[in-house]
Specification:
By secondary structure, the protein is an alpha+beta fold. About 35% of the residues lie in helices and about 20% in strands. Helix 1 runs antiparallel to helix 2. The structure holds 5-amino-3-(furan-2-yl)-1H-1,2,4-triazole-1-carboxamide.
Length: about 325
């Protein structure tokens, strides 16, 4: 005979497991109706026994009342935007710049190749395994706190699926709206005489900027992780691809098209393959993102900050504040 606390905890674990199977592995073990039945059973138990309330329970996705505005969040590690290539020549020039900068290079050079989802970049912070904050990319340094809205996205876990979670883990990824959900949303908007969205990216942006999480919750949004920002209390794998696999293993959804390519020819083949797949992926992509897989090489290469390499500001010493 289980206590109510044990029943509640067991249902929470069971629901987290099935969310992982469905949203991360795409291998549901039970029909949706069974999941819904368990979900409502947990909701009823939690309502009958508020002493066991837990904000990280799978039922706690729509919490807060509408916000008056969005707080600002400063990214500890800037979320910089990507440089672009529009031809094989430009990609080859990118590789040549790397070779010139690094001198000796492993041969072949391994790239982690990813579809470039056309959504909104976000940063999601997990502290001791629980989701505590989420923010938009903003200008790369400062974003908007959209924690309440991010919590409503079904494939984002409220708690990491691991027994020894990192003290702090910042997941970076793209929130997007699949095409089918976008079309259904616009149909409903038309039927209700409301404004429609021009494309899934605008729909995703508009849905994340809702001040009322109850509205965001009704929008068919999804996350695909593509990187890690802050990571404390965990030893991360030393390649990007292995880091993405690790994220997937602890419950974070990662796009299934991502693969490793050895050498420029295979990278360009991935690019052409993704171009062919593009019309029937079910979500918008606007290209591919091709990353050096080895983290040590990434760190050697670093970032070209937004600042131009050709100008410098020569400042006067700070003036003593005039005390009035
Ligand atoms: N949008 C998108 O799918 N992205 N964006 C990155 C990225 C942005 C900065 C570093 O990596 N990676 C992927 N797959």
């Amino acid at each position: 005979e289980q206590t109510f606390a044990q029943q509640i905890e067991q249902l929470r674990q069971t629901l987290r497991y099935h969310e992982y199977q469905y949203h991360v592995l795409d291998e549901p073990k039970i029909p949706d109706a069974e999941y819904d039945r368990l979900f409502h059973q947990l909701k009823a138990l939690e309502q009958a026994h508020p002493e066991f309330a837990d904000s990280h329970s799978p039922t706690q996705r729509v919490g807060a009342k509408p916000l008056a505005g969005f707080a600002q969040v400063t990214h500890e590690i800037p979320m910089l935007s990507l440089d672009n290539a529009f031809s094989d020549e430009e990609f080859n020039a990118f590789v040549k710049r790397i070779q010139d900068r690094l001198g000796v290079l492993p041969e072949p050079l391994t790239f982690c190749c990813e579809p470039k989802l056309d959504g909104l970049a976000v940063s999601i912070l997990y502290e001791n395994g629980v989701l505590t904050q989420a923010a938009t990319r903003g200008d790369g340094t400062t974003g908007e706190d959209i924690t309440a809205n991010i919590r409503t996205i079904r494939n984002i876990p409220l708690q990491l699926l691991t027994d020894n979670p990192p003290a702090r883990l910042e997941v970076r990824g793209e929130v997007f709206m699949p095409q089918a959900g976008f079309e259904k949303l616009n149909e409903m908007a038309l039927a209700k005489g409301e404004k429609t969205f021009a494309n899934p990216r605008n729909a995703a942006a508009g849905s994340l900027r809702q001040l009322d999480p109850k509205i965001t919750r009704q929008r068919p949004l999804m996350l695909n992780a593509y990187g890690i920002g802050v990571a404390e209390g965990v030893l991360l794998p030393d390649t990007h691809f292995a880091r993405l696999q690790w994220l997937k293993s602890i419950g974070i959804p990662v796009n299934k098209e991502i693969e490793l390519c050895n050498g420029v020819e295979n990278v360009l083949k991935f690019y052409r393959t993704m171009a062919e797949k593009r019309p029937h992926l079910g979500y918008d992509i606007d290209g591919t993102v091709l990353k050096i897989n080895d983290i040590a090489l990434q760190e050697q290469l670093g970032f070209i900050s937004k600042a131009p390499r050709w100008a410098i500001a020569y400042k006067f010493p700070a003036q003593e504040e005039l005390t009035v």
